[in-house]
Amino acid sequence: MTAPRTPKIPYGGDYNPEQWPEPTWDDDHRLFTQAGIDTLTIGVFSWSLTQPAPDTYDFTVLDRIVGRAAAEGRRICLATGTAALPPWLAKSHPEVNRTDFEGRRHRYGQRHNFCPSSPAYRGHATAMAARLAERYADHPALLAWHINNEYGGACYCDLCAEAFREWLRDRYGTLDALNDAWWTTFWSHRYTDWAGIEPPNALTEHWRGPDHTAFQGITLDYFRFTTDALLGCFLAEKEAIRRHDAATPVTTNFMGMFRPLDYHRWAPHLDFASWDSYPPLDAPPTWPALAHDLMRGLKDGAPFWLMEQTPSTTACRDVNPLRRPGELRLATFQAIAHGADAALYFQMRASRGACEKYHGAVIGHAGRADTRVFREVADLGRELVLLGDATLGARTPARTALLFDWDSWWALEISDGPSRLVRYQDVLHTYYRAARAAGADVDVVPVTADLTPYDVVLAPVLHMIKGDLAERLEAVAARGGTVLTTFLSGRVDEHDRAFPTDVPGPLAPLMGVRVDEWDARPPEFVQPVPELTAKARLVFEIVLPRGAEPVATYGADFYAGTPAVTRNRFGGSGGEGWYVATALDQPGVDEVVRRVLARHDLLGPYAEHLGLETATRVTPDGTRLLFLLNHAPEPARLTARTPATDLLTGKRVEEGEPLTLDPLGTAVLRLQ
C-alpha cells in the first residue's frame, strides 16, 4: 500500500477545533477556503476527549469535526490520539507512567509520557484505534490514518527491564552468545542468569548522562530495544485499524534525523513515510534537504508527506526566529523538490493556552485574514492549485548515494574514544552539503540498500560494518564506481566490538590503507592540509598507504607529510576507494567531493552558482522536472541549458536564454 491518491498536493495541516468554541469553526473554515486548505489532520491529542473514563467513549465532538470538514469538501488525516495519556489512565494504572533515565517513576503530565511495555497502555490504545476505525473507516472524508504522534522517549521501569530481557533472549538465544557480544569478561560482567541484566541507565552502566556508558554493547542494544518497543505499539494500533479498514493508508509522523529511533526499522511497516520539519536555528538549507532525502529513502525512493512545518515561527525553544517573507514558500517547494507529495502545517489555528500558544499558525488568536503569514499561506495555496498533480508520484533519479546508519550514529556517539566532539549528523551533513552544492541529486539510504544504481557512494563515519556491507561496497568500485569513507569508519562490528585487524577493518582492502594511530584534539586545534587549501580538526588518523596514493597530506606535527586524503584504484574497471582521515572543513570536503563527482560526470549544470539548489524529479510518465531554488538574498541569473516550461508561471524558456530567479525564488521546470 502507498500514500493516498489525490488530485493535487494535499495542503492544510494539524487542526484542533476542540480547543475553541464551536462558533469559531465557522470562521476557521471560511479562512481555510480562502487559503486553499483542503486537508486537515485532526484528533492528534484527543484521547481524553473521546474516552473521558475507562468504560466511556464519546465521539460527539469528533463526529461534528469530521462532519464539518466533509461538508466543506475537505479530506482528513485522522489520528488515533494515543500520543498523550488521559489523566484517568495514569491514575488507574500508575505503571503506564514512564520511569526516566535516573530511575524516577514519573507522575501524570506532559506528553509522550507512556511506557511502551505497559499492557494497560497498549490495551487501551489499541482499543481506541479499533473504535475509531470501526466508526470512521468508510467515511468519505477519510484520506489516511495517523497513528500516535512523533514517537520518542525511553522508559527504564521494571516492565521494560523484563521486556528487554525477552528481547535479548530472542536476539541472542543463549547467555554465552550475549556474553560474547557484550564482551562481558571485561569488569567481571559475565551474566549467568537473564534476570541479572538491568537496563543501562544512570543507576547501572552510565555516568555523566546517556552517552557515557561502561558497556557500549548493552547501551546499543537498549537503543535497538526501545526502537522495537515503540514500533510494537505502532503495529498494535495498525493491526487494530486493519481489522476494520483494509484500504486506507496508515502512517505516523517522524522527525527527520531523530537519533533515539532507527526509522529504517520502522519503514517497512508504514504505508507511506511522513515527517515534521523543524530545522535547528540558523541551519543552512541543506540541513532540511538532508532530512527530506532521508525520509524519501525510507520507502526506497517513494514520495513522502511533509506532515508538519511552521508557517511562521516555532515554540518551546529559547529563541524562536520568524520566517522572513518568502522563506515559507521556498521551504515548501524545497520539500516538494526532494519528494514531498503533501505540504501540511502545524498548526491551523493557534492555541490560546499551554506551551504552544506562541507557536506559529495559519490563523492567529485574533482570527484575521490580513496578516502577512496568512497572505503567504493563501498565495502558496493558489500556486499548489496551479501545480495540480504535476509532481505527484515523481521520483529522484540519483546516481549518488549517502549511507545513513542509526547503529553507526549510536555507536560513534556513545564511544569513549577517540573524540566525543565528532557528531555523526554534522559529518554526514558536511558531505551531503558538498554533493548538493556540486549539483548532484543524492539518495540517502540505509546500509542494507541495493547499491547497484549508484556510481558514487558516500559513506562518512561509517563506524559500524555489518553483514556483507564491505563486499557490496567493493562491488560498487569493482564495476567502476567510487566509494568514499572517512576517519572513524570500519571500527566495530554489529555488537560494537573492535575488529581484531587493522583499521579500517573490513574496509581496508577497498581503501588500500592501514591506520595504527590517531590523534584527537580540542576544536580550537587546527591542522593545515595544504594541497586542498583546507583545515582539519578533531581527529587526525595517521595513514600508512597499502596500495593507495596520497591526494592531500597533513601540514604540521610529527605526522606532517603523511596522507590526510588517499585514493585507491580497485578492480579492473577503474573504480576507486577514497579515504579521508580527518575532519576537513567545508571547503576541503567540497574539493574532495567535487573531484569524485567529476569522475562520473555528476557535477550539475549550475554548480558554480552559490546559494542555488537544484533537484530533479521524474514523474511516472517519464517527464523530467528540474527544481531551481534560490536561497540567496539576491537574484540568481542563469542560462537555460535546455528548453523548458516553468510550471509555476507558464513561461517557456529556450536553450541559451536568460533565466532569472528572484531572491528566495523558485522555478519548477518541465524539461522538453
Automatic annotation (TrEMBL):
List the protein's name: Beta-galactosidase
Task: Give the top-rank taxon of the lineage listed in the UniProt record for this protein.
Answer: Bacteria
Q: Where is the active site?
A: E150, E308
Positions that bind Zn(2+):
C115, C155, C157, C160
For this record, an example GO cellular component is: beta-galactosidase complex
Q: Name one GO molecular function term.
A: metal ion binding
Domain Beta-galactosidase C-terminal as annotated: residue spans: 611-671
All copies of domain Beta-galactosidase trimerisation, residue ranges: 398-602
Family recorded in the similarity comment = Belongs to the glycosyl hydrolase 42 family.
Q: Which UniProt keywords apply?
A: Glycosidase, Hydrolase, Metal-binding, Zinc
Q: Name one Pfam family in it.
A: Glyco_hydro_42M
